[in-house]
């Protein structure tokens, strides 16, 4: 998905990421339902601490499912490549989230479908490409092309 015109390229999360979160939220709902069933079967489980756990399960269900739905339905880009640089909203804490192409020194494939952008000053930005809609190879090609353009290298297109 190399963009030869230098236009902005945006990569979004796969919908499966949000749906997976919603599925985990439903497991919390199943836990709350199971605890409610236990509470109704006997007086042993009818206590205040048990009620707090049931309500906590429902709150976690609501939060995780809502976050999963927002991720699955929001068209916000999580990786943006433009003429000036990149923005990586998937970077881990302590890593670079945005930088110009002049700062990028190297691009390499990392373990388990990640792309590592090495920047000057021993800084990095890791892109988990398995979470994005494009393949690792497509994103790597787009980043390499933009990096070559920024450093003034000529490439055959």
List its traits:
157 residues, alpha+beta, PH-domain like, 2 domains, four-stranded antiparallel sheet, 7 strands
Distance between the termini: 12 Å
Q: Which of globular, elongated, flat, extended, rod-shaped describes the shape? A: elongated
- So, CATH architecture of the largest domain? Roll
Query: How many discrete structural domains?
Result: 2
Along the chain, the helix and strand elements come as: EHHEEEEEEH
SSE-based structural type: alpha+beta
The average pLDDT score comes to 87
Q: Count every helix, treating DSSP H or I runs of 4 or more residues as helices.
A: 3
Q: Approximately how much beta-strand content do the residues carry?
A: 15-25%
Q: Mind summarizing the main beta sheet?
A: 4 strands, antiparallel
Low-confidence stretches: none
Q: C-alpha Rg, in Å?
A: 22 Å
Q: At the third CATH level, what is the topology name of the largest domain? A: PH-domain like
Helix content: 40-55%
CATH class bucket of the largest domain = Mainly Beta
Count of strand segments: 7
Q: Give me the CATH superfamily of the largest domain.
A: Pleckstrin-homology domain (PH domain)/Phosphotyrosine-binding domain (PTB)
Strand order of the largest sheet: 1-2-3-4
